[in-house]
Amino acid sequence: MLEDKNQITSNLEELGEFGLIDTLTEGFENKQKSTQLGIGDDAAVLNFGDEEVVISTDMLVEGVHFDVTYTPLKHLGYKAVVVNLSDIYAMNATPRQITFSLAVSSRYTVEALQEIYEGVKLACEFYNVDLVGGDTTSSLKGLVLSVTAIGSAPKAQIVRRSGASETDLICVSGDLGGAYMGLQILEREKAVFKENPEMQPDMAGNEYVLERQLKPEARRDVIKALADFKIVPTSMIDISDGLASELMHICKHNDSGAQIYEDKIPVDYHTYKAAEDFNFNATTAALNGGEDYELLFTIKQKDFEVVKGIPGISIIGHITDKASGINMVTRGDQFIELQAQGWNAFKNKSDS
Ligand code: ADP
Ligand code: MG
Question: Ligand 1 atom closest to Cα of 44?
Answer without folding.
Answer: 14
